[in-house]
Amino acid sequence: MRSVPAIFIAAAMLSISASSANAAPFSGRWVPIASATAEYCLDGECAAFPVDASIDLNMPEGPDGLALMRTTAGFDPFGLEFDLVQGSIFAVADSADYPFDHSILGDLPGILTYELTVRFNSDASLSLIGFERATHPLGQLEVRFDDVEFVPTPEPSSAVLIGMGVAALATRRHRTSRS
């Protein structure tokens, strides 16, 4: 019975390494670090709030190709959300080339304007720089990102396996302390 927690943890580690080996670099969901803030503005009046955003990347498998990026930025003070989906040709750089930038520009007059730079700091960190601006019945809404750091989220199956291993360890420890 001693090996059950170790089996779950080992399976999780294998799952993490297998999934990352098969996935294109940087693909997946990225979330801001806990301390990240951004400026949220309404008609030019701005205040800093915790970042309510995520980035979903679907990178090309080869060295060049069409990358899809979905940036979701919440506008918590008003319960609104920006949702941008961009597709662009993207060249994946070698890790020796860190940091490298990818710019995304867009303008739908009277509706939405965005000027973002995604800076790939490493394979485990990227930063978002720039702004997203939208016209809304409430007024001109804008989110400004000033080098906000994002990190990848763990794969759900890996997190579940690690959690099961930790729970099994805790149960085993609890049983041995009672006897």
Verbal overview:
This protein is α+β, with helices and mostly antiparallel strands. It has one domain. Helix content is 24%, strand content 52%. The protein contains two helices and ten strands; from the N terminus they run αββββββββββα. Strands 1, 2, 3, 4, 5, 6, 7, 8, 9 and 10 form a ten-stranded antiparallel β-sheet that branches. Helix 1 packs antiparallel against helix 2. The longest helix is centred in the C-terminal third of the chain and has 23 residues. It starts with a helix and ends with a helix. About 11% of the residues have low confidence.
> Mind telling me the C-alpha Rg?
20 Å
Helical stretch tally: 2
What are the secondary-structure elements, in order, as H or E? HEEEEEEEEEEH
Query: Uncertain runs with pLDDT below 50, 5 residues or more?
Result: 4-22
Oligomer: single chain
Roughly what is the average pLDDT, rounded to an integer? 75
Helicity range of the residues?
10-25%
The outline comes out as: globular
Number of domains: 1
Output the keywords.
alpha+beta, 2 helices, globular, ten-stranded antiparallel β-sheet, 52% strand
